[in-house]
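Curious: why this fold?
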Amino acid sequence: DVWRRCNAMELRQRKDAGAADGGADANNGVKTSGAAARSGTVGVVDGGGGGDGAAAQVDTKRRRRQRRRQACDDWGVREWGILLVLIALAVWGALEYAAATYPFVAWVMGRPEPVEDETPNTEGATLWVAASLGNVTALQAAAAAGGDVEWRHPEHGTTPLMAACVFDRLHSAKALYAAGANARARDEGSQEWSVLQLATHNAARNCVTWLLEETEAINDLNARDKLGCTPLHNAAFRNEVVVGRILVEHGADLHTRDLNGGLALHWAAYAGSDAAMEWLLDETEAAQDIGARNKRGRTPMHIAASGTTEGHLRTVQALLARGADARATDKRKNTVLHDAAAYSSRENVEWLLTHSPARHDIQATNKFGESPADRADEEKNEATANVLRTFASLGLAVHEAVAAGDAARVRELGEIDAPLRWRDDAGVTPLERAADAGDESVIRALEAAMAREDE
């Protein structure tokens, strides 16, 4: 648009210049035709003043260029100014739309959240939000305006005090308690957790200590939720050693069982909470419950071996290092290896087979006649089933070496953790077969390998 206007101006200037130059054609020898005058072009006719005419033509072109440049420069400044204003308006409009649509953009722009109603919030939602954010000033203002300190969140039924403790907002919690909040309230969720249980589950160390030392929540130290779990169960499940210590120091019962008969040890095993497991076994009286069984007869070892993570494996190792029975059976005669084969990972089962007495139960059967491999197949756990089949093939290899009288092969198989007690289809072990054959070299090789295995 700028260039169009410049060109139009140039045409008008050419017409004006042509008209002015036409009056001087007689003296300078320059003649302008009617068509040339209309189009703004100048014709040069050599006459008596031809040299002067050429100079006039060059001067005319120079003046035209100067006028055109000046006109374009003048219009460019104006147009660029208009363009920049339009761009700024467009950007601002886009930001306004984004701020109205996306709260994050509004936050970046420093915009406060829109308030639809200027009347004080007397229900307590403002209190809940302020408590969860730790904004004591807003919390006190909302309380002074009549906010309900026992207001319940519509989704999970938590109070403002619960929200403060979940996020470990100690100052907010104290302000709410001073305003009359109930420190023994329970939420309206599926488990009906107390304030102390919520704080424990969320590792709110400051609020846990404060609740136990300065409020009546101390009376909920061993209170149970709908599953029968106490705050200590929650701490063990969450692998929170510091919170667990706080609870035990204030008198938490280490031997309380949930509705399924599970102890804090069982919950640590269930979550693969290796640090909590080591703490419970090394620093508390829970160590005497290392072989405790729940209502299904499962020990912490059963439960830890059923897990799939590295944390579960470390928990198994912690239990074994402190004397847990790796060959314990539950009420259905499932061994630890049965549970691991059914639910655990390939790596964890491999470790059990090569580093624990659980290897001796590879052919054990439960009350339904199922072996660990059968349980793996039943639960469609192909990874552990393949490990068990590989291990079984090594057991058959031991029998073959014994039958061939190959003591060197027996020693090699022992070094790679082959199952030296594997029973064949007739129920005979390799040692029994070697004894029947009277092969002393094989017997000695087997006994030496089994001694190393049992170390």
Q: What stands out?
A: The two ends are 93 Å apart (CA to CA). The chain is about 60% helix and 0% strand. Confidence is low (pLDDT under 50) at residues 20-51.
